[in-house]
Design brief:
alpha/beta, 7-stranded mixed beta sheet, 27 helices
Length: 759
């Protein structure tokens, strides 16, 4: 089945992404009076002088520039910053509603200490001196017992000065257990490292392409830097760039594309290799393959053994007829798609399902990246680029005492970087699984910043079990989210509009970039910048830890760290490395061969394990396979539901369609044929069960979903925050568990087997 742009169904569904057909303006108008009556915390500014502060939004990895309008000392409106390189004046619905995160009722207003059971929500307010003293004392006890490795820290990112401060603190303390929240960027980074030898992020020159091949990426559903993608999508339509969306569900992105190609979930790698088969067989590949790659052709190792190259693998194993049986896509469609992609001037293939909130199969990311190599669109305008982090954090190596050195030698609890997963940097799912199952050593203390694993990670019960086995948990969250509700101590950070910090590497940006987030308003409550909190904890602990974080405060640390970039950042709000990619093409690959590697021979850092060296398709075993669960449950993302660390403010939750959430009831999408076979009709209540859990849902009939599937939105089912969000719908992560990728150990689950029956 293939649906083009002019399909009536695409027009109908795609309109929901716009303004005219959206229920948004009607719901907002209908409930305007209710808002003003029932939300007394909505600020009403006094008369005063109007001003603007240019800053960077930190509500998602997009790194958009924003302009905040103030009346007196009160922020009253957020708009996109004009001429900002990332978003060029645009702003998303979450960014627009950011003032509710500043003034809303979910803020943690002062340091809190738990007095009831974990998760019960009983707290007593304490002073900052007591809060910092208690953390320092607890960590000091753990370190004095010779177990510094039992401290762990989870952060939303590992980039920027804040994350580096946390990492430096753990290192000099003696713990290797710093983790960041998983996402598709883990898989993209791994693919770049294996095939290019680059320790870098994936950047994309979307503005220059003329053919976009998307393997499930929610281009206008929140993938990458959302506002940049909105604008890129509009640009593509203006200049006639062809966009093809490959996914099992007709998303807003699919409906707005030139073609939607439904695919059996989890078979994207097979399709990518099937496209490669056609490109190779018809010799449509770029000369880049001959001049700048290794492993395309068969080759001999030092022992004289022959290895099949990428060419022979795709020609023998991934013919269109074979791939058609795997993916459910017609063989002729595969041939036509490959030909169109290869003959475009600047084609680009991308992957990472939905908003890219979860990693994925290493072979899938490698196979898609191989397509870009076949057409020669690697590290050049209009292609995919390996973008290194801006090189500005150059602190001296900290002095390590014996306790720290011994702790760092214990190895990571999540197994990342170990013998089994030598190339993976972080494995948060394994971290919690190992704690819950008492595998390895226990974790005595956990620090959490800008992350909500008790909501965002699959298999919530295992994560909660792990939390119950950790003696001490401290959260730096600005909000009372699910994880913070489970902490022992809360040391609340300033809200994002109240603090200053550097924001490097916007998602998918094609050059090294740093944004500066400025303090738009003075802190409203008794909160403290997390950078200052960490520095004060270090000073309270003394010794090498205090020496390693010896700055007077975070502002001094930030200005010193940014050095000569500080003036430009303070003036313009961002810095770009305009000289990026000025080096010769041959210097762009740091692999053992010095070239792009279709066959991953070895990495220059010393790992010799080949780990399924060629990209290939290996079916992933999904939980619940068998007759007990005849359907497949998959998630979907929408711009109207924030499903990461940042939650949906009331203004945004009000825009969610009635076919997604009605009252407190969540709707799941089901193809009419599937529903008819189950005896279900539109709006019926039903019981949805998986090997991980059971939920009461309502049914929405949707022709844009392949038969045999059930689709559920991510971003609902919160148990924390406020009455505008808590208790609405189901958290998808309660119904699914992680499925480890055999190469990386990252979660590669694309769904879970399910059963749907009348309630």
């Amino acid at each position: 089945m293939k649906i083009g742009r002019r399909s009536f169904l695409s027009f109908l569904i795609g309109g929901a992404a716009g303004t005219t057909l959206s229920p948004l303006p009607w719901k907002l108008t209908d409930d305007l009076s209710i808002w003003t009556q029932n939300w007394p915390w909505t600020p009403i500014p006094e008369d005063g002088e109007a001003s603007r502060v240019q800053t960077t939004c930190t509500l998602c990895p997009g790194g958009c520039g924003i302009s905040v309008r103030k009346v007196g000392d009160r922020a009253v409106k957020i708009e996109g910053m004009q001429d900002h390189p990332v978003n060029k004046g645009g702003i998303c619905i979450l960014g627009l509603a950011g003032l509710q995160l500043l003034y809303g009722p979910t803020r943690v207003k002062a340091p809190l200490k738990r007095v009831g059971d974990r998760g019960e929500g009983k707290w007593v307010e304490i002073s900052w001196n007591q809060a910092i003293s208690e953390v320092a004392e607890k960590l000091g006890e753990i370190r004095s017992s010779g177990k510094p490795h039992t401290l762990a820290c989870i952060a939303g990112s590992d980039r920027g000065t804040i994350s580096q401060l946390l990492g430096r603190f753990l290192t000099v303390y003696g713990s290797p257990n710093f983790l960041r929240t998983p996402s598709m960027y883990d898989s993209y980074e791994l693919a770049l490292y294996l095939m290019q030898g680059a320790q870098a992020s994936a950047g994309f020159d979307f503005e220059s392409v003329d053919f976009v091949l998307s393997f499930g990426s929610g281009i206008i559903d929140g993938w990458g830097s959302p506002v940049r993608m909105f604008k890129a999508n509009s640009l593509w339509q203006e200049k006639g760039c062809r966009v093809v969306q490959i996914e099992p569900r007709l998303s807003n992105t699919a409906a707005k594309s030139d073609a939607w190609i439904p695919i059996n979930p989890g078979t994207e790698a097979a399709l990518a290799l099937g496209l490669a088969h056609v490109i190779v067989k018809e010799r449509l590949y770029n000369d880049f393959v001959n001049t700048s790659s290794f492993g395309f052709y068969d080759w001999y190792d030092d022992q004289g053994s022959v290895h099949r190259g990428f060419e022979q693998v795709v020609l023998h194993d991934y013919a269109p007829d074979t791939v058609s049986q795997i993916t459910g896509i017609d063989a002729n469609t595969i041939v036509e798609l490959a030909q169109g992609f290869a003959k475009a001037v600047k084609p680009l293939a991308i992957c990472g399902r939905g908003q890219g909130l979860t990693p994925g199969s290493t072979h899938e990311f490698m196979a898609v990246h191989a397509l870009n190599a076949l057409v020669g669109n690697i590290n050049k305008p209009g292609g995919v680029l390996a973008v290194p982090d801006p090189d500005y954090i150059r602190w001296p190596e900290p002095a390590m005492d014996q306790t720290a050195s011994q702790g760092m030698q214990k190895g990571r609890l999540d197994d990342a970087g170990g013998e089994r997963y030598p190339y993976t940097r972080y494995l948060m799912n394994r971290f919690f699984e190992n704690i819950a199952s008492s595998k390895g050593y226990p974790i005595s203390a956990l620090l959490i910043n800008a992350s909500n694993p008790l909501y965002c990670l699959p298999d919530n019960e295992t994560v909660k079990k792990a939390f119950n086995r950790i003696d001490f948990i401290a959260s730096f969250s600005s909000y009372m989210d699910e994880t913070t509700l489970y902490a022992d101590l809360i040391l609340p950070n300033h809200c994002y509009l109240e603090r200053q910090e550097d924001i490097p590497s916007p998602a998918g940006f094609e050059k090294p970039f740093i944004g500066l987030s400025k303090a738009v308003v003075e802190p409203h409550f008794n909160t403290k910048h997390i950078g200052d909190t960490i520095i004060e904890i270090a000073k309270a602990m003394g010794g090498n830890i205090a020496e390693a974080l010896s700055w007077d405060g975070f502002d001094a640390c930030l200005q010193e760290t940014l050095g000569e970039k500080w003036d430009m950042l303070n003036d313009k709000g961002y810095w770009i490395d305009e000289q990026f990619l000025s080096q010769p093409e041959g210097a762009l690959f740091e692999t053992a061969s010095g070239k792009f590697e279709f066959f991953v021979k070895a990495i220059s850092t010393g790992h010799e394990k080949e780990l399924d060296a060629l990209p290939r398709y290996k079916p992933l075993s999904i939980e619940g396979d068998g007759p007990s669960f005849p359907l497949l449950l998959i998630p979907y993302d929408t711009m109207r539901l924030a499903s990461g660390y940042v939650y949906n403010p009331p203004f945004v939750i009000k825009t969610v369609e009635d076919t997604v959430l009605k009252g407190n009831d969540i709707f799941v999408e089901v193809n009419p044929k599937t529903a008819a076979a189950l005896g279900l009709a539109e709006g019926n209540f039903a019981t949805l069960s998986t090997p991980k859990g059971i939920a009461r849902v309502r049914v929405h009939l949707f022709d844009g979903l392949m038969p045999g599937l059930v689709a559920m939105p991510r971003g609902l089912g919160h148990t924390a925050y406020d009455s505008y969000l808590a208790g609405k719908g189901i958290n998808f992560n309660e119904l699914i568990g992680p499925v480890p990728d055999p190469v990386s150990g990252l979660d590669a689950a694309f769904g879970i087997r399910a059963k749907l029956s009348a309630a």
